[in-house]
Structure formats: structure tokens, C-alpha cells
Specification:
Elements lengths: L5 H18 L17 E2 L2 E2 L3 E2 H20 L8 H11 L18 H28 L2 H10 L9 E2 L18 H16 L8 H14 L26 H14 L19 H14 L14 H4 L9 H15 L42 H13 L2 H11 L4 E2 L28 E2 L4 E2 L5 H6 L7 E2 L6 H14 L5 H4 L17 E7 L2 H9 L5 E2 L7 E4 L1 H8 L20 H4 L2 E4 L2 E5 L15 H17 L8 E6 L1 H4 L18 H4 L13 H12 L4 E2 L2 E5 L11 E3 L11 H13 L45 H4 L3 H13 L1 E2 L2 E2 L39 E5 L6 E8 L13 E5 L6 H10 L3 H14 L5 E2 L4 E2 H15 L2 H11 L6 H9 L4 E4 L6 E3 L5 H11 L6 H18 L9 E3 H16 L3 H10 L2 H12 L12 E3 L7 E3 L33 E10 L5 E6 L2 E4 L4 E7 L6 E7 L5 H13 L5 E8 L7 H9 L13 E7 L8 E5 L9 E6 L25 H11 L7 H10 L3 E4 L2 E4 ...
Parallel strand pairs: 9-10, 9-14, 9-16, 11-13, 12-17, 25-27, 28-34, 30-35, 39-41
Antiparallel strand pairs: 1-2, 3-4, 5-6, 7-8, 12-13, 15-16, 18-19, 20-21, 21-22, 23-24, 25-26, 28-29, 30-31, 30-38, 31-32, 33-34, 33-35, 35-36, 36-37, 39-40
């Protein structure tokens, strides 16, 4: 790069002006200001039109030259522009206040340069405004496109050069090219920031704002891409293109906050970009690079994304990987290929048609045209990043591709490549460097080029020069010669985005109480909040919907017919800002905390999980000034029935109070304050520590955050006279805080927590219970609910809070208090009995549910046997039972009567399901004075309040509710290249692009019809998957298609395995799981490889005594606390790789510290640590026989005696022989009851009665064990933490078999992994998980064979490999779909192992011919199982012969199901693994017969 010299600079600028004027400015239309892409008209198209993208690139060299002229300073340091303004303003020859002389000689170099500067700047402005006007004429399209994202509603990509009018119809060209529109917005931001005035009126500002809305959904909008043809086959099918998304990211970053009127503009001329939309685009970009699209595994256009002009990727490692992969696959001597197998302008391309045939693409391999354009991108990137080595490399590579205008003859392209670079000899005329569009291989050199790539001379095409490429070359040359600096071309500093540094931030959390009463209650628990009506009058808190309403006004323009931003929810980043309008501050609560978003937020544990995930997302993606501020409004409904005035604390550890402890009323917590709500309260209290799972947080008052928050202006609303913005905010405020907490019948969308469509036509499509895949059965009231006297008390409490207001009954169905007889007999009921009805006093009970299918109608009918007698004290007899069949209206009136008398929610929902199958949901039931829909809403609301999740899901399915956030979560999945399928079999619907709520509702209604609860569960699964992929995307490694049907099967299998129950019981357990429990179980399913680590995982039950056990890995998506050593899972036995560890020994260490001693509780099991996160007693219990179970519960016995009672019951519930570890944190003595003390003494505690306030205490004991094995430690509050107590326990071995071989113990005689590998294969198969590089390896296997066969289906080599490349996403989808012919998920995973092994065989032995054989994968798998089976049968033949299990012989076909189960539980590697047997089967099945392979197999066996 040369040193700056004024005279030399003027000479060089004069030269560049002549070049640019000749090649660019002379082509600019005097009328429209637009520039043609070229002057060529060839068989490949008319290049004389003005493409938006080409025009912006072309004008950049003019813009750069103007900046270079502006850069030259006069001798006093003032700019040339300043001198020109002085000359024009004063009109004198000598300035009065200086000695600077302004020449009047028009030929003076100074004056000439000033005029050139003005000319160049005006040329830039004219072109940008010409493009703006062309697009503004299509404003109606922008308005439509914001809502539809339809290709026919897109802005046109090219216009007539002379007039700016459209060139071609909407459906005759791939006009949707988001990168082109984004590049225009990006250039507008750069040029405006540099001082150019391009936008003149408010109408133009509003249109540009709408262009932001046009491009902000690029992450979910397939377009035709930078090459305008869609997928690489040129069939005109749009794709999600990385180059479009990346340019949109850059444009949104650049234009955000730019005032289009410059320094003299105001709020109304400023452009606003919502941070969540920018983040979604950026996240999508990071997840798809280096791939360009589904059909293009790599594309040269990614250079514009990772370098100039976008600099959109912020990950340096990803930028480097993308550049290196593109260079390796695309670079040639004359430039880069656009993408692999690009047939554009090759000699063998058939120009009579636009598209290519499937088997035609491979013919273009190695002869793709090479574009010098990409060399200019590499030069520009090096200049902007300071990599001068890269600059020199590619400037040198560019030299042979540049054609001197003096020697260019379009009719004779065989110029001498050995010539020297063009010489700028002005004496012999102007020599202009020309860059052709591309270089192609001549027809006579194609075979030689294919045989030896990059060996043949190529020719330039007729489109010379390509102004786009020439502009970048000239711009780079000016920077290279130090006539211009990167900072001038990039005034917004986008080039500094690629730094890889994570910004540390603190998230401010403001907790508000909905009223003063709740504020006082929370203060009793030590949680300080502000009441909403106590905050400053200059601050208003509004729901998130208000912010969406406000932004709906942004960009509104009646003259252009533009409405502004569509009313879509604003994400957590948007609501984490504060907003100012006319000096007043507005804060908005986050959307995920809104109680109107489905029943999920009614589960406090799920709300905690969502809060943690959203805080993590906000922290990871906050790149703005100030701190994020999250405002949370706490409500009674959220926290449960808190008591306002607790009774005096009763401490039974005090001798004077010991007698009163046993019968003390729980303090502070009212009836119904369950454990999950306690967890929610504890979660908010724990935020005081300043850490939330690794996210730094700070609890603040709202007024304290004003100086540190990010505050965005909403003053643009003031300048819109047609908009009454004050009314918008006032209505939202009154709607949010003025709504009654008691709800009447006649529910609407906002009151039912989800979108509920209108009634549906009864008949065959009425959803019915699953009877095939789910194997579901009737769900009566769970035994644990019926046997708990609190069941009816819970209903009474909930209804007492909701049922009375203004003397009008809120609900139409009976509650417990209306029954004349308390149904105590129901406690003795059993799910195993034939009829609930015989034991009921409420007059209607579910006796059983059966299903039958008639061949004639193919309809599934559910028969409900119900008692139709009125409420009486006498249980109904069997003759009084009523049979109900879905869709059969003959018993409708009897069902209404039964419903009117029923007091059980489970019976009510099943009766309503029958009634809904017979009538519209809008059908009015006169006896109950309500419609079916209203009755369903009533049951739904009760179930949600009581947390009866199966009923809530059943009601949700019947009401066809679709959670509004579902579309957002689907988008989060598909933008990260994860497809979602709903349904099963031939009816399975695949979602690969974002879809709207109406479409989703239709899909759920049609595909989830076997069980009305399936639809809501599928919605939950999608929401949880979306949450996981936002916070922990690595969980989805190796997964490209998420099939919800198989995920549900995996969940069912996991529950069945952990609870040793059949499929019907497992699916009922699944339906009763709370949202958080279901989310946690799904996290276990997704945990993948960790399920098979050496040594079993400790399992934690979801709740004390619960039926669901969850791996410690279920918390792996949460961040470890700062400074903690917490691991994602805890093996109960150390890995065998440690060698010296004793697999039968368990080493337990524990330590406790009260509040004054450090405030922690820590337990280690075999060196793996667990930490208590809340106050009180923490209990871990290990079953030594099962070796994998760990019960974990926490009890805040400081806050209430109810917690002590729960602790006592938990200890009583534990089985004798279980190891129990107890550690305290903070304080646990305040409300520790006598019964709790006695329970600890029964465990062997000697010092529990010595415990005082905030002492430290730890205990390790065996329930029912001898006291000499007990380990206990106690320290006073001021004496520091307890010492680390240690206990070594030997795990009990399983009893030896008595020699009798049965179905239950046969696995002992075969190598096995105790079910761990079978579990992993089932889970991974359900998730379609594959190892790294699997698809590219499968492509190579397919390329060397005739095809791959699965049963009667074949994936042929031709045309598959002819059309697709190894890393092409479409090929991965093809293989993924092909593997779907395996219905057993575990079998599918074995098939994946087979293909991976064949690849390694072919790689090691490339000379073995396999191209003529078809690889029969099921045959190989069957042969491997046979080898395994007969080997181990022979080894145990003497014992097996005595068993009745083998009375029919040892033949494989007789025991194939057992063999599958045993074989699929083998590890993947080792001396006894699936790989060993699969290798043998492969050698026998395929033509691998060499001696070397035999040796290889012997080595495997060793």
C-alpha cells in the first residue's frame, strides 16, 4: 500500500475518475439514475436492465471515489467541501478571516476537484433515489408481503433502466431476492451516515421503515437468492439462502437508529429495528454457515456475508471455516465457481430451457464457470480486516483475469495469458481494466478439464465487463493505494463485528406485586417488591401486547397504503428495554410470563424453567447499550394462596414450645400452597444472590434502573396526527390491570389462555382417544388424588375463590359442596376394578373405556359405562350403568343428566367429550344454561387451577386450542435446519418452513385425532424443543428431523422402563405429567450419548415418591452457577477408564454451612458434586440394590410447619435399607416440628435437639440400619461450616441366579449393558440422531454401490448421486426419509451403524468392487443377529436345554424378538459389541473377501 502523497493522489483519482466515468457513469440513465448490469444481450439474458443488486454494487465505486475526493484536505486542514461552501456563500476571492485564497479560475485543480466531488455525490444520490422510487411504486406489494411472505407479493428485482418501471410480470421471474433489498438498505445506512442526503420526505422514511419489516423475517422466508433461480436445478423453487439472511442481518444492524434526515432529523425520521428479529436472523445465519441452502452445500456468495459488504457473522472461527471450505471447494485459476455443479454458461448447458434434469447436474462437475468476482471479494475482505497477505495473494490471482480495454476483442477471446498486466499509459490512450463476468471451458477442452481439473485455458464470456465485479475491483484498488480508508467506506464499523468477544452484562430484574396486599404477604417471606400502584407516576408498566400495538404504528402511511409492523408478539429482548415518549417511561412485561399463553404457565416449575431459559437467551444476545431490564408482575394466581398474617413461629426445638408443635397450623402458607408454588417463590427469593444459573442478575426497584437501562424512544408516535397513541396505551393498561381475577362464563380468546377456534362439525372427524399407537386407556381419577382427602378440599378451595361474585354463579357444573353426601367411599376405589360407578356416591363415574373398530365405517367408538341414576346416598347398581358411544346421539339426554349430577372433573370431561362428538361446541345445553364450549372452558379452568394436567390436556384438545407461541418455537427449530413432523404413517405432515397458527390448528386437528390429548402434548413438545434449541443447540447434534409421534413413543418407553409398567399405564402417566415434568423427561430423551457412559447414572424422581425418575442430565440445559463444580450428570459408579476405582464402592461426602457460615450445602457421590439451591433441609436417598435411584427433595422448614410435616412424611415413605443424606442450608430450625425431630432421631441423629437458629447440620445414615454406621456433624451459627463428613458404602450385588433360565434373567447369559444401550438406541432412533459426517459417508457408500435397500424400498445410486453432492442438505433429507422405513427406532440406529461400517470398509479397501451390488441393510442386520445368537446359545447350551424357554428349540426365528432386544443392548464398540457382529455379517453379505479383511475381523475379536 503506497504512502499518501497529494500530487500523486490527485493524479490517481483523476485516473480512477476517467475509468469510472467511462464504465459506470456514462451508462447511468439521465432520467432514472439507474445503471444497466451490462450492455450485453446474449442467449443467457438481456443484461441492459437495471438489477437492484448490481446497481448498488456498481455505484459503490462512485461512492468510494467521492469519499476519496472528500478526503483530500486543503492546506489549513479544512475539507474540500468546506472550501466549496465558503466560495459559494461569500462570492469573494479572499476570505475575510483567513489567508486562504479560493481560486476563481475554473481550470484550477482545486475547483475542478470540488466540482467532481459534487458530481459524484449527486450521481450516488440519484441512483439510490431512482431505486427508491422504483420500489415505492410497488408499496402495495410491500404491505402484502409483510403478512404473506409470498413470492408473488415480492418487490421486483430488476427494473427498466430508462424509466424505473417493472420489466417482467410477478410470476415470470424469481423476484423475491431478499439480499438485494437488504443491500439497498445497508448502502442507504452507510451513505446517510457518511453525510449524503438521500431521503427527503417523511413518506420516504415510512417506506424505508417498511423495507425493514420486509426483510426482518428473512430467517424464515425462502427466496430465489443471489443467483435468482432458487435451487441449483433452476426449477424456480425458493430456498432459505444464507447469503440473503446474512445481508439482512447486516442491513438490520446498520439501519437501526439511523436518522435518514441526518443531523437535522428528529424521532420521526429515525429507523427502528426490533432486537428479537435481528437476533433470530443472526442466530439462523450462525446455524447454517458455511452452507448456502438445502441444495447448495457451499456457495461463493457467502463471501459477501462473512466479509465486505455485510460482515454479518460475529464468530471468527466460523468465518474462517466458511472461507476455507469455500476456497477448497470452489476456487480455480480464473476465479471461483458459484457453487458445485453449476451449469450456468457452460458449453454443454442447454439454453433452450432454464432448468436442469436430475441426472444432468453431475455432467457439470469440474467444468463449472469461474467468476473473477469472488477474487475481488477476497481482496476487499483482506483490506477491511487488515490481512494484507490475503490482499496480495488475490490481487496477484486477479492479474491474469483482467483484460486491458485496449486489447479486448469480443470476437476474438483467445488473448495471450502470458501478457504483462495492462499498462495505464495515458499517452497511448486510456487503458481500462475489464473484469469479465466469468470464464468458461471451451467445448474442445471439456474432456481434458474433467480428466485434470484446472489444467485447461478458459475463455471470458461476452458480458465483459461485469460492472458489479469491476466496481469492487476499483474500490479495492483505491483502498489499496491509500486513496481511501476502510473506515470511510464502513462508517458504522461493521468490520469490527468479527471479534468473537462475548460482552458481559448484568440483567436487571424488577419484581412488582399486583397489589399492596400481595406485597405485604411477600414481605413476610423476605421478598421485597413494589406494588404496581406504588411506582412513580412518571413510569407505567404495560403488558407485552401493548408494545406490539405501539409498533403497529411505526411506518404507517396512508398515502402509500402502509400499516406499519404487523402485530406480532415482541420477544424478551424487546421487552427488556425501557421506552420513553414525551418524557414518560414505559416498561413492558415479558411475553413468556403472560398468563394468557396456554396452560403451561400455570405450572410454576415450568415457569421457573422458562424464566431461566429466557434470562440466558437475553444475556447471550444482548449487544446494546445499557443493561437489559426484565419487569415481572407477581400475582396471587401465580404464587398460590399465601396467607397474609402467619401465626407466631413455633419452634419445637425450644422446650417451652415442644408440646405445641405437633398440631400447629402451617404458618404463612394457606391450603393448596403446593411444592411447585413454593419452588417459584424460592426462585424469586434466590435471585437476591445475584446469580441465576450462570446469568448475572440484580434485583432492583424500577426507578433505580433508569440510569443503567437501555431506553428506546417512542417519540415517533407524536408526529403521527392520525394516531391516538395515548388511547392505545391507556386501553392496554386498563385491559391488563383492570381485569377481574374472577372469570365468568362466556370465555373469549384472552380469557382462556389460548386461541380457541369456533365449534366444529360433529361426526367422524371428532377427535377420539388413541387406540393404536398410544395404546391409551380411560383416565379415571388417579388413585393418589382419590385417596387424598385434600382432593375435594382443593376443589372446594378453588371454587370458593372463583364461584361467587355479585350473587351470580360462576360455574354451571356441580362442585363438591353441592353433593348431599361426602363421597368418602371413593377413597377405596381402584383403577383395577371393573367400575368406578359401583363405588361412587356422586352419581356418575367412569367404569371403563373400550374401543372398537368396525370394518364398514372404519370409525373408532369409545363406550362409556355411566350411571344414570340421580345423586343419592345409595351407590348405583350395575343395571343402572349407561353405555355411550362417540358420535351416537341416542344417549345424549342421559349424558346431560349425568353431567349435571357429576362432581368429578374426570367424569365431567369424558361426558363432555361424548357430547362434543354429537353436537357443535356452540350447542346450548338448556339444563345447564351454557353451551358445550362454555362447559369445556369451565372444566379447563378448574383443571388448570387444580393442576390436573390430563384433564387440562383433554379439554384443550376438545377446544382445539393452539398456543400462540407455537409458531415462534417452530420457527426457532426450522431456522436451525430442524424439520418437524406431526402425525404418523402416510398421514404424517412434515414442517420444514415456518407456518402460521391457522395452518397449525388444521394440522393438529387432522393429524392428532386418535387421542384428544395428543394434540396438546405435541404442542408442548414443540415448545420444549424450541426452548432447548435456543439455549442449548448442541443437544440437537446429529438430528435434522424431529418426528413428534416417535418422540412421544420414546417418552412412553422411558416411563415404562423406569416404572416397570405396560404401555397403557405409561401413556396415562405421561398425560398426568406436569408441563415441567414433561419438559424434564424430554430433556432426558435428548441427552443422547451420556445415557451410555460407563457406569449407571443416578436417577432423580420428579417428586418424592413420584412415578417419574429423571436423569441428572435433565438439568443439563441449565447453566452451572458461577464458580460451582456442578456437572450435568452424576454416575453412581466411577467410569471403568479410571481403572483403580472399585465399582462396588460408593464414597459419599457432605458438608453444610448455615447462613453465617457460608450459606451452602454440598454433597459429593464418588467425587461428583451436587449443591443445594434453596433454604432448609435437603435430602438425598439412594437405593443400594437398584444402584441407579436417587430421591432428592428439599424442605424449607424455616418458613412453615407444613414443610416439616412434608419432610416427616417423606422420611416415613423411604424404604428400609436406603442410604439417606441430609444437609441444611441457611436455616431449618424455625418451624421444625416434634415429628420431624423424631424422624431424624429414628435415623440415628444424636444432636438434632441441640440445633439452634441458622446452625450447620449434616447427616449420613441408613434407614433401619445400625447406629455405628451413622455419620453426623453439627456446628453453631457462629462456629463456621461443619467438617466434611465422609462415608464409604458398598453397593449390594444382585443375587446369583438359581440356574433356572427364564425370560426375566436370560440377559445374564449374554453380554449386555443392563438396558442402557437399548435405551440409547431407542431414544436416538426416535430423534433420528446420526453421528457426525454420517450423510456424506453414506453418499460415498451409495456412490460405490448400485443402491441401498430397506425391505422393499431402494435408494438408487442413479440419479441420487448425479443430482446431489455429499454434503448437500437435500441428500441428508433423502437419506433421513429413507431410513424412516424402519418403524423400530432401535433398529433404525443399527442400520446407521451398518452404513457407517460399510463406509470404513470401503475406505480401507478401495479396490474391492461393490458398484454392482445392492446393499441390503436389513439382511446384514439379520445375519449379524444370527451370528450373535448362535454363538451365545452354543456357549450356554447346557443350561438352556434345561429351560422351558427353549422347549421349541434354539432356532433364530423362534426367538427373534428376544434376540433383537439382546442384540440392541450391546455397546457399539468393544470385543462384544454390535460392530463385531455387523462386520462379520457385512463380509459375508458383500464382496469383501480379501485376506486383509479376515485379519481385520480377527483383530476386532481380540
Amino acid at each position: 500500500m503506497s504512502h499518501f502523497n497529494r500530487k500523486h493522489s490527485l493524479e490517481r483519482l483523476d485516473y480512477y475518475y476517467q475509468v469510472i466515468n467511462t464504465t459506470v457513469l456514462s451508462k447511468q440513465s439521465a432520467a432514472s439514475g439507474l445503471i444497466p448490469a451490462s450492455v450485453a444481450i446474449t442467449s443467457h439474458g438481456d443484461y441492459t436492465d437495471a438489477w437492484v443488486r448490481d446497481n448498488v454494487y456498481s455505484i459503490y465505486c462512485v461512492y468510494g471515489l467521492a469519499l476519496a475526493y472528500r478526503r483530500l484536505d486543503d492546506i489549513s486542514g479544512r475539507t474540500w467541501m468546506t472550501g466549496l461552501r465558503e466560495y459559494k456563500n461569500t462570492g469573494i476571492q479572499e476570505h475575510r478571516n483567513t489567508e486562504i485564497r479560493i481560486p476563481t479560475n475554473m481550470g484550477h485543480p482545486l475547483f475542478s476537484s470540488l466540482l467532481l466531488l459534487v458530481e459524484l455525490e449527486h450521481a450516488v444520490v440519484k441512483l439510490m433515489r431512482g431505486l427508491l422510487f422504483s420500489m415505492m411504486r410497488q408499496a402495495p406489494k410491500v404491505e402484502k408481503f409483510k403478512k404473506t411472505q409470498d413470492t408473488l407479493d415480492a418487490l421486483h428485482a430488476k427494473y427498466k433502466t430508462d424509466t424505473g418501471a417493472t420489466v417482467i410480470k410477478d410470476n415470470e421471474w424469481g423476484h423475491l431476492q431478499i439480499d438485494a433489498t437488504s443491500f439497498f438498505v445497508l448502502a442507504l445506512a452507510d451513505m446517510t451516515t457518511s453525510g449524503l442526503n438521500i431521503i427527503f420526505t417523511q413518506d420516504e422514511v415510512d417506506f424505508v421503515q417498511n423495507l425493514v419489516f420486509y426483510i426482518e423475517r428473512a430467517y424464515r422466508t425462502p427466496d430465489f437468492g443471489i443467483w435468482e433461480r432458487g435451487n441449483k436445478s433452476n426449477h424456480g423453487q425458493p430456498e432459505l439462502n444464507t447469503s440473503s439472511i446474512g445481508m439482512a442481518v447486516a442491513a438490520l444492524r446498520a439501519i437501526n437508529g439511523v436518522n435518514l434526515f441526518g443531523a437535522r432529523g428528529g424521532p420521526s425520521s429515525t429507523i427502528y429495528v426490533l432486537p428479537d428479529e435481528l437476533t433470530r436472523n443472526a442466530t439462523t445465519l450462525q446455524s447454517v454457515l458455511p452452507r448456502e441452502s438445502n441444495s447448495k452445500e457451499i456457495d461463493g456468495s457467502v463471501l459477501s456475508v462473512i466479509g465486505f459488504p455485510a460482515f454479518a457473522c460475529t464468530d471468527p472461527a466460523l468465518v474462517k471455516r466458511t472461507r476455507e471450505e469455500a476456497k477448497m471447494k470452489l476456487e480455480g485459476k480464473y476465479g471461483w465457481k458459484r457453487f458445485l455443479r453449476d451449469g450456468h454458461q457452460t458449453e454443454i448447458e442447454d439454453t433452450s430451457r432454464l432448468h436442469y434434469n436430475d441426472n444432468e447436474l453431475k455432467a457439470f462437475e469440474d467444468i463449472e464457470s469461474e467468476w473473477p468476482l469472488f477474487f475481488t471479494y477476497m481482496v476487499m475482505e483482506g483490506l477491511f480486516t487488515g490481512d494484507m497477505e490475503q490482499v496480495e495473494e488475490y490481487r496477484k490471482k486477479l492479474e491474469p483475469t483482467i483484460i486491458d480495454s485496449a486489447y479486448w476483442d469480443p470476437n476474438n477471446k483467445m488473448f495471450n495469458e502470458d501478457r504483462e498486466m495492462y499498462i495505464e499509459d495515458t499517452k497511448q490512450g486510456l487503458h481500462i481494466p475489464l473484469l469479465p463476468e466469468l470464464y468458461y471451458v471451451p467445448a474442445n477442452a471439456i474432456e481434458a478439464e474433467k480428466a485434470n481439473p484446472h489444467s485447461q485455458r478458459r475463455l471470458p464470456n461476452d458480458n465483459t465487463p461485469l460492472v458489479w465485479a469491476l466496481s469492487l475491483y476499483l474500490l479495492g484498488s483505491m483502498i489499496y493505494e491509500n486513496l481511501l480508508s476502510p473506515s470511510e467506506v464502513d462508517p458504522l464499523g461493521r468490520r469490527f463485528n468479527v471479534n468473537g468477544q462475548k460482552r458481559e452484562t448484568i440483567t436487571q430484574i424488577v419484581l412488582l406485586s399486583e397489589n399492596a396486599e400481595l406485597q405485604n404477604k411477600l414481605a413476610m417471606y423476605g421478598l421485597e417488591t413494589q406494588a404496581v400502584d406504588q411506582i412513580s407516576t412518571s413510569i407505567t408498566v404495560l403488558p407485552p401486547k401493548a408494545l406490539a400495538d405501539v409498533y403497529y404504528a411505526l411506518g404507517q402511511n396512508t398515502k402509500l397504503g402502509l400499516t406499519g409492523r404487523p402485530k406480532r408478539p415482541v420477544g424478551v429482548l424487546g421487552t427488556s428495554r425501557l421506552y420513553r415518549i414525551e418524557g414518560h417511561i414505559y416498561a413492558f412485561t415479558p411475553h413468556f410470563m403472560d398468563s394468557e399463553t396456554f396452560y403451561l404457565n400455570s405450572d410454576p416449575d415450568f415457569l421457573i424453567s422458562a424464566f431461566e431459559n429466557e434470562l440466558a437467551f437475553c444475556s447471550d444476545n444482548w449487544f446494546y447499550a445499557g443493561r437489559p431490564t426484565v419487569v415481572v408482575v407477581l400475582s396471587e394466581a401465580m404464587l398460590g394462596n399465601l396467607r397474609a398474617s402467619p401465626t407466631p413461629a413455633t419452634n419445637p426445638t425450644n422446650p417451652t414450645a415442644a408440646g405445641a408443635g405437633a398440631g400447629a397450623v402451617p404458618n404463612g402458607l394457606g391450603h393448596g400452597f403446593d411444592t411447585s408454588r413454593k419452588n417459584l417463590l424460592n426462585f424469586f427469593m434466590n435471585l437476591r444472590s445475584g446469580d441465576c444459573n450462570g446469568v448475572r442478575v440484580r434485583l432492583s426497584r424500577l426507578s433505580e434502573t433508569l440510569n443503567t437501562s437501555n431506553i428506546e424512544s417512542l417519540d415517533f408516535l407524536i408526529d403521527k396526527p392520525e394516531l391516538d397513541w395515548e388511547s392505545i396505551l391507556l386501553v392496554n393498561k386498563s385491559a391488563h390491570y383492570g381485569r377481574s381475577t374472577h372469570r365468568k362464563l362466556g370465555y373469549n380468546e384472552s380469557k382462556t389462555q389460548a386461541s380457541t377456534p369456533g365449534g366444529f362439525t360433529p361426526g367422524t372427524k371428532t377427535p377420539k382417544r388413541r387406540n393404536t399407537a398410544f395404546h391409551g386407556k380411560s383416565l379415571g381419577t388417579p388413585l393418589d388424588k382419590l385417596q387424598d382427602e385434600g382432593y375435594f378440599q382443593d376443589i372446594a378451595t378453588a371454587l370458593s375463590n372463583l364461584n361467587v361474585s355479585n350473587g351470580e354463579p360462576r360455574f354451571r357444573l356441580k362442585d363438591h359442596e353441592e353433593s348431599p353426601v361426602f363421597p368418602a367411599a371413593r377413597k377405596a376405589g381402584s383403577l383395577e376394578t371393573s367400575s368406578f360407578g359401583t363405588d361412587n356416591d356422586n352419581g356418575s363415574g367412569i367404569s371403563s373405556v373400550t374401543s372398537s373398530v368396525t370394518n364398514s365405517t372404519l370409525k373408532s367408538h369409545h363406550e362409556f359405562e355411566r350411571c344414570q341414576s340421580p345423586v343419592s346416598e345409595t351407590p348405583p347398581s350395575a343395571t343402572e350403568m349407561l353405555a355411550l358411544t362417540l358420535g351416537d346421539r341416542s344417549q345424549f339426554d342421559q349424558a346431560v343428566s349425568s353431567l349435571a349430577s357429576s362432581m368429578n372433573l374426570y367424569d365431567q370431561i369424558d361426558l363432555l367429550q361424548y357430547m362434543a362428538s354429537c353436537e357443535h361446541l356452540d350447542c346450548y345445553i338448556g339444563d345447564l344454561q351454557a353451551s358445550l364450549k362454555e362447559l369445556l372452558e369451565e372444566v379447563y379452568l378448574k383443571a388448570v387451577r387444580l393442576q390436573y394436567w390430563s384433564i387440562a390436556r383433554q379439554a384443550t384438545g376438545l377446544l382445539h386450542k393452539v398456543v400462540p407461541a407455537l409458531t415462534i418455537n417452530i420457527t426457532d427449530l426450522v431456522i436451525r435446519q430442524k424439520q418437524i413432523s406431526i402425525g404418523s404413517g402416510q398421514q404424517e405432515v412434515l414442517i420444514s418452513t415456518p407456518v402460521g397458527p391457522e395452518t397449525l390448528a388444521k394440522i393438529f386437528f387432522e393429524q392428532c385425532s386418535d387421542d384428544v390429548r395428543e394434540g396438546p402434548v405435541v404442542q408442548e413438545i414443540i415448545i420444549y424443543l424450541g426452548s432447548f434449541i435456543r439455549t442449548t443447540p448442541q443437544m440437537f447434534d446429529g438430528i435434522i428431523r424431529l418426528r413428534t409421534h416417535y418422540i412421544i413413543i420414546a417418552l412412553r418407553e422411558e416411563i415404562s422402563r423406569m416404572n416397570n409398567c405396560d404401555e397403557e399405564e405409561a401413556i396415562e402417566h405421561l398425560m398426568q405429567l406436569s408441563p415441567y415434568e414433561l419438559q424434564s423427561l424430554l430433556g432426558t430423551i435428548l441427552s443422547g450419548p451420556t445415557l451410555c457412559d460407563n457406569g449407571s447414572n443416578i436417577m432423580i424422581r420428579d417428586k418424592p415418591g413420584g412415578f417419574l425418575m429423571l436423569s441428572r442430565f435433565t438439568d443439563h440445559w441449565r447453566r452451572p452457577s458461577l464458580g460451582s463444580e456442578q456437572q450435568s450428570f452424576i454416575p453412581i459408579m466411577p467410569p471403568t477408564s479410571e481403572g483403580q476405582a472399585d465399582p462396588t464402592k460408593l464414597v459419599i461426602r457432605a458438608q453444610s454451612a448455615g447462613y453465617m457460615a457460608g450459606n451452602f450445602a454440598r454433597v459429593e457421590i464418588n467425587g461428583n458434586a451436587m449443591f443445594a439451591t434453596s433454604r432448609g433441609l435437603h435430602v438425598w436417598a439412594i437405593d443400594r440394590q437398584q444402584k441407579i435411584m436417587l430421591e432428592h427433595a428439599s424442605f424449607d422448614t424455616h418458613i412453615s410447619t407444613e414443610e416439616s410435616e412434608a419432610f416427616t412424611k417423606f422420611i416415613e415413605w423411604l424404604q428400609p435399607g436406603m442410604l439417606i443424606i441430609i444437609a441444611s442450608r441457611d436455616d431449618f430450625s424455625e418451624h421444625l416440628t416434634v415429628e420431624a425431630i423424631k424422624a431424624l432421631e429414628h435415623l440415628g441423629s444424636q444432636c438434632i435437639r441441640d440445633i439452634k437458629y441458622r446452625d450447620s447440620y449434616v447427616l449420613i445414615a441408613e434407614k433401619g440400619g445400625v447406629s455405628d454406621k451413622l455419620t453426623e456433624a453439627h456446628r453453631g451459627a457462629q462456629e463456621g461450616p461443619t467438617p466434611v463428613v465422609e462415608c464409604t458404602v458398598y453397593l449390594e450385588d444382585q443375587p446369583e441366579t438359581d440356574g433356572k433360565v427364564t425370560q426375566e434373567n436370560i440377559a445374564r447369559f449374554f453380554p449386555n449393558a443392563s438396558g442402557r444401550w437399548l435405551r440409547r438406541r431407542k431414544n436416538d432412533g426416535a430423534l433420528n440422531r446420526v453421528p457426525a459426517y454420517f450423510f456424506s459417508q453414506t453418499w460415498k457408500v451409495l456412490d460405490k454401490s448400485k443402491g441401498i435397500q430397506i425391505f422393499d424400498h431402494c435408494l438408487p445410486r442413479d440419479p441420487t448421486v448425479l443430482e446431489m453432492t455429499p454434503k448437500e442438505y437435500n441428500f441428508a433429507l433423502a437419506v433421513e426419509g429413507f431410513l424412516g422405513w424402519f418403524t423400530d427406532p432401535a433398529e433404525r440406529q443399527i442400520a446407521v451403524e451398518v452404513l457407517a461400517l460399510i463406509y470404513h470398509f470401503q475406505k480401507r479397501h478401495p479396490t474391492i468392487p461393490t458398484s454392482d451390488c445392492t446393499i441390503d441393510v436389513p439382511l446384514i442386520m439379520k445375519r449379524a443377529r444370527e451370528i450373535f445368537w448362535y454363538k451365545w446359545v452354543e456357549n450356554n447350551k447346557s443350561r438352556f436345554e434345561k429351560s422351558e424357554l427353549f422347549a421349541g428349540g434354539f432356532h433364530y426365528e423362534e426367538h427373534k424378538d428376544l434376540v433383537r432386544k439382546l442384540f440392541y443392548d450391546l455397546p457399539i464398540e468393544g470385543t462384544e459389541s454390535t460392530s463385531v457382529y455387523l462386520r462379520k455379517a457385512i463380509v459375508e453379505t458383500l464382496p469383501f473377501k480379501e485376506d486383509s479383511i479376515d485379519i481385520e475381523l480377527k483383530e476386532d475379536e481380540e
